[in-house]
Amino acid sequence: MRRITHCILRILLGGNSMALENYRWFAERLRDKRMTQRALAKLLEMDPSSLSLLLHGKRRMRVEQAAEIAKLLGVPVNEVMRHGGADVREAVVTAPATLPIVGWIDGENRAKLDWNSKGSRCDIPGYPPTAVCLQWRTSQNSGSLVDGWMLVTTPPREPDAEEMLDRFCLVCIKDGDAMLKTVRRGYTPGKYTLLDMFSEPMHDVEVAWFSPVLAIRPS
Fold this sequence. Notes:
The chain is of the alpha+beta class. 30% of the residues lie in helices and 26% in strands. It is built from seven helices and eleven strands. The protein has helices at residues 2-13, 17-32, 37-43, 48-55, 63-73, 77-84, 161-164; strands at residues 98-105, 110-113, 121-123, 132-136, 150-153, 167-173, 178-185, 192-195, 202-205, 207-212, 215-217. Helix 3 (37-43) packs across helix 4 and helix 5 (63-73) packs across helix 6 (77-84).
């Protein structure tokens, strides 16, 4: 009976049958981990409806999103990419074992960056080849507890409210500095409130670019 139902669904859905099969794959992996889709969205710091669009194939999954989902579900990233529609041309099947260190973060969560740095690398496997690291250098101030820790992120991209909101990101304010902030919706359309533990909130800020934080690793 199950097989007949599956065949009927394929006939009725036509071109959408592959999307249905891909969504079922994600649903099975979630069951294997005894995790709900809403719980996965919370771990990804993503709106549940946005995650649903990704898993149903209605929105293109980016490589770094595939890497995050793969780590949480305990499955190979190339499998997530295949079922999630991520462009495999943006990544290799085996992620690099080391990532370039492209800058550092001070005790006020401000970043000094050189995206083209070819110098030091950190040993953090399991992230897409576009990923990079920044290191905290905070030995002389109140942030000394995280001195030497590594932050994994990706190169800058255009501001996208759906991707930024309620997420910890490296953001660059227009005509200003790059800094680590949690991004919230601003009081003016197209602007944002930026929060952290060390300073007063920054209200109605215009963001020039952002990079999502994928991981933070102790030294």
